[in-house]
Write a structure and sequence with these properties.
Length: 472
């Protein structure tokens, strides 16, 4: 009998597997797809021989993650490009908010807001590792850097719209809007400042890295580490019922609540199942991958050097777009996240072509292809962009889910961040990774700390399960 089986081979499933295998436990990962990696994979989506990321593309949380820091993934082939500019937020008149890795350089560009921006972030950036260590764990954890955590906690509960009121320039307000919109919530909701602050901190700390070769390189390195510790992977192994698995002492489900209720419900208490059923999913995503015959002609020269460009215009425009999404309307001018990996990793394009990754938030349940609005938004800040398109591939929310059952309705966040789910995922419990059954654990983006390629949910679920394994 195996010690552990992990269901789901995304970054969290791999992190759970590595955690068991490294501790000497026998473990297998069961993955539904024929390739491992979940929303951390790369492939030729457009059909022109280039390498496009199917899900995650830019990895601020991987560098910061205590899980990733505990591994030597360089020796498993993983290398990063870390641009000097993490994020750019272009505005209509050619100006832009620019998040350089250097906080001082960023502040200098913000005019009358410079000092205020620097003062707000300097204490957090100075101890960014301590802060992220705290933010990437359940909130009951004792912070290793209590002063930094307290400073963060002082502002994090605010709506991003309140935080933005402290700033006068469109550049500073735009930067905050772009970071906060990663919450996929209206910017007037409480706690959206926590996203604005954390993304700002990572942008000025380790930066927003892009893995050479694409997100697949992260997955391949994790899989290589996993097998080197003795773990094994089963591909094309979709689990519809826990009873389909061979016997093991514990199971970690790196899945979302709806799947867990369906697959493992019979082994869980009625109370825990009701909690799973109360879990809310977030809006979907509409993704467009492009091949261009040259780089994106951004008006802002800094955008041509940035890891990510937050396309949406001034704070009010971004707020309106996210408000529309939450209200079930397709935004006229959607907020779009754009990255052009070939600027830093030219090998991903063929014959000098550029690869561009873009996605926007789509109202929940909406499966309409409104990608022409994504094209229009990029063209708005990069005139001539459309003329450079030689190939284009649209992925609608339903297609995201078809490629990976964890992306329920195209939800890229593993569940909504509204209300208590920003802090308590998937249910309000002392230990979010445990269930009502001591043999079953949960370790996907639907658990604390949530979405992103950081592996913390998988690692913490496996760590909890190990306590059971090692005390029995
Ligand atoms: C379009 C998009 C863009 C994103 N951009 C970024 C980004 O730039 N940076 C970032 O940090 N994060 C980004 N994310 C989020 C990030 O990719 C996810 O948070 C992360 O991959 C979650 O990891 P996971 O292991 O929990 O789940 P997933 O990566 O979703 O993996 C789940 C795995 O479980 C498998 N599975 C599901 N059901 C079963 C079953 N019944 N049996 C067996 N296997 C099953 C699936 O096939 C899949 O392989 C993005 C996500 C998407 C979709």
């Amino acid at each position: 009998m195996l010690d552990a089986i992990v269901v789901g081979g995304g970054p969290n499933g791999l992190a759970a597997g590595v955690t068991f295998a490294k501790a000497g436990h026998s473990v297998e990962i069961w993955e539904a797809n024929d390739t491992i990696g979940g929303a951390c994979r790369t492939g030729d989506l457009v059909g022109l021989g280039c390498r496009h990321d199917l899900g995650a593309a830019v990895q601020p949380l991987a560098l910061a993650s205590p899980f990733f820091r505990s591994l030597e993934l360089g020796s498993h082939g993983l290398a990063w490009a870390i641009p000097d500019i993490s994020a750019v937020h272009p505005l209509d008149d050619g100006r832009a908010g620019v998040a350089y890795r250097s906080l001082d350089e960023t502040a200098q560009r913000l005019g009358i807001d410079g000092d205020r921006y620097r003062n707000m972030l300097r204490p957090l950036v100075a101890d960014s590792q301590g802060l992220l260590d705290f933010a990437l764990r359940p909130q009951r954890s004792i912070p290793t850097a209590p002063a930094t955590a307290l400073r963060f906690a002082g502002r994090a509960p605010l709506p991003a719209s309140w935080l933005a009121r402290r700033f006068r320039t469109d550049e500073a307000r735009g930067l905050l809007a772009g970071h906060a919109a990663h919450a996929i919530l209206p910017l007037g909701r409480p706690l959206t400042s926590s996203f604005a602050l954390l993304f700002a901190v990572t942008s000025h700390g380790d930066g927003w890295p892009i893995p050479i070769g694409g997100a697949q390189a992260i997955t391949d390195a994790l899989a290589s580490a996993f097998t080197s510790f003795g773990g094994s992977v089963r591909l094309g192994a979709r689990i519809d019922d826990l009873g389909d698995l061979p016997k093991s002492r514990v199971v970690v489900l790196a899945l979302t609540p709806r799947q867990i209720d369906r697959i493992a419900g019979g082994a869980l208490s009625g109370r825990y199942r009701r909690a799973l059923r109360r879990f809310r999913y977030g809006p979907g995503a509409l993704k467009v991958d492009y091949v261009l015959d040259g780089p994106v002609p951004w008006t802002s020269v800094e955008a041509r050097r940035a890891s990510t460009v937050h396309v949406g215009g001034c704070f009010e425009d971004v707020a309106q777009a996210e408000h529309d999404v939450a209200a079930g309307r397709i935004p006229e001018r959607p907020f779009v996240l754009v990255s052009e990996p070939t600027l830093f990793d030219p090998g991903r394009g063929i014959g000098g072509r550029s690869v561009v990754w873009a996605y926007t938030h789509a109202p929940r349940g909406c499966d309409v292809d409104f990608s022409s609005r994504i094209d229009d938004q990029i063209e708005r800040f990069a005139p001539g962009f459309k003329d450079r398109i030689v190939g284009r591939h649209v992925t609608r929310p339903s297609q995201l889910e078809a490629s990976n059952a964890n992306l329920v309705g195209g939800d890229v966040g593993g569940g909504s961040y509204a209300g208590r789910q920003i802090l308590f995922r998937p249910a309000v419990r002392w230990n979010p990774y445990s269930t009502s059954n001591q043999q079953i654990y949960v370790g996907s983006a639907s658990t604390t700390p949530g979405a992103g390629v950081h592996g913390m949910s998988g690692m913490l679920a496996a760590t909890t399960a190990r306590t059971h394994l090692e005390t029995k």
